Amino acid sequence: MAGFHHVELWVSDIESARSDWGWLLRRVGFDLESTWPQGESWAAGGAYLTLTTSPNTVGAEHDRRRPGLNHLAFHGGSAAEVDAIMADAPAAGWMPLYQERYPHAGGPQHYAGWLENAAGFKVEVVATGTSFVAEMNQHAGISSSL
């Protein structure tokens, strides 16, 4: 029973989210499962991610520095696949973060890229090969800087 069933992200602009999130989710292996005027759901590995608008949102901006979601981390495949995603990301609306430390901003054993979209959502694209324990230890030591 371990693992996520789903994650629901509320966005202020669903059309922008369809574009930039759709590009990213396809690149990391998600498939579009359903759409409706206010949202869409993407599935992979038995879980799904929903992007949706709601009349109940408070404010129009996401701020990853406030309590709540800081970032989502996705399996990105091989190091070469992560490199390709990072190279293509700006054209798809995702700006690289921590470029001066790429691909080891998370530490020497952690190969990943970080991206942020115009709405302020941050994602991490992680190459295969980082062990879960090593990754958790490294995140614990760097969480305030990333």
UniProtKB/TrEMBL annotation:
PROSITE patterns, per database record: VOC
Protein name: VOC family protein
Domain of life: Bacteria
Signal peptide (UniProt feature, chain positions): none
Residues of the VOC domain: 3-128
Short name of any one Pfam family annotated for the protein: Glyoxalase_4
